[in-house]
């Protein structure tokens, strides 16, 4: 019984997807006939209408091609080898993100170096002030 409903569900899913995609397509990207004509074809011509819309109605348009670039660019969009990415790129491909990681790592290293130097100065000062105190020792090597 479920198997006999599968083609109807596939047709319904394809039609709904094609209609929503047609409605979301900006007017300047619509193929020659009007939006109303395309929706009528998608709904009234079973399977073929939706298939024609998906194949011919979107020449050269990728899934993420409508993403902002240039001044409208938002975080998560960036550069690729080919130029400006028209889709979100991963952080490991974003030069700005990688540079910020490098800056954070250098800052953390400076902080650790400064803390280590402060610790050494405190220990030296304690040794000078109380030379008989044996529990404050500098770094030692283990044999």
Which short descriptors sum up this protein?
2 strands; 143 residues; 4 helices; 54% helix; rod-shaped
| Strand elements, count | 2
Q: Please report the number of helical segments.
A: 4
Low-confidence stretches: 62-75
Percentage of residues assigned to helices: 40-55%
End-to-end C-alpha gap: 78 Å
Report the order of strands and helices.
HHHEEH
What Rg, in angstroms, do the CA atoms define?
32 Å
Order of strands, widest sheet: 1-2
Averaged pLDDT? 77
State the secondary-structure class.
mainly alpha
Tell me, briefly, the overall form: rod-shaped
Gist of the model:
By secondary structure, the protein is mainly alpha-helical.
Explain what the structure shows.
The protein is mainly alpha-helical. It has a domain at 2-61. Helices cover 54% and strands 3% of the residues. The protein contains 4 helices and 2 strands. The chain has helices at residues 2-24, 35-44, 48-56, 95-129; strands at residues 79-80, 83-84. Strands 1-2 form a two-stranded antiparallel ribbon. Strand 1 (79-80) and strand 2 form a beta hairpin. Mean pLDDT is 77; it is low at 62-75.
